[in-house]
Amino acid sequence: MIVIHHLNNSRSQRVLWLLEELGLPYEVKRYERLKTMQAPPELKAVHPLGKSPILTEGERTIAETGAIVTYILETHGAGRLVPERGTPDYWDYQHFLHYAEGSAMPPLFLKLILSRMPQEAPFFAKPILKAAVKAVNERLLGPQLETHLDHWDRSLAATGWFAGADFSAADVMMSFPLEAVGSRLGFGLRSNIPAFLARIHARPAYREALSRGGPYAYA
Ligand SMILES: N[C@@H](CCC(=O)N[C@@H](CS)C(=O)NCC(=O)O)C(=O)O
């Protein structure tokens, strides 16, 4: 049996959604974030990195969402939710499968961490930190995020999906960065992104995954 070690309000929600889309049986083992937002230490007993998601099945333990998604598709997917190998859609699929965590999430995570720093600093350091965070946002993260958002919007323009004419696991992987931006920052005038989110949030498998995963602030 596939077991997903799932942290509340986290990117792990995507894995539950993928399993629902494929109609596969699975168990969810839920973990609650600490006040610091970190994962509880019990997750380190499952995998040394102690982050969610983690998949276990029999003797196998896999961490890292992209690897988990690939494992599920290759061992239980029977070719579903992956474009035909070698086609342009397949390479778009590969791009988004890796890009979601490799390139889209790091600036979002950095922005979140930096936004918290002034609040948590002693009062005398707050003004300096605020100015430093503002400068990093204006010079580095802001322009980078604009480039990412344009890439998402343009990629969705033709079909409404990230890899070809059909819904695929690339859409599942990309859901979290889009939801994270949607919940904190917004998309400006880029209409293809909110349309994509509305479409995935209406899918029965997405709704079912929410009921299995518990609280999720991004949907
Ligand atoms: N790139 C990794 C990121 C894993 C990750 O950072 N997961 C977060 C959940 S959103 C987590 O466990 N955070 C708690 C912590 O870092 O202690 C993946 O996609 O699996």
TrEMBL record:
User: What residue ranges carry the coiled-coil annotation?
Assistant: none
Q: What class of enzyme is it?
A: transferase
Q: Which CDD domains match?
A: GST_C_GTT1_like, GST_N_GTT1_like
The answer, when asked if Manganese is one of the entry's keywords, is: no
Q: Name one Pfam family in it.
A: GST_N
Assigned keywords, A-Z = Transferase
Q: Which residues cross the membrane?
A: none
**Gene Ontology cellular component?**
cytoplasm
Which reaction(s) are listed as its catalytic activity? RX + glutathione = an S-substituted glutathione + a halide anion + H(+)
Q: Where is the GST N-terminal domain?
A: 1-80
Name-wise, this protein is: glutathione transferase
Organism encoding this protein: Aureimonas pseudogalii
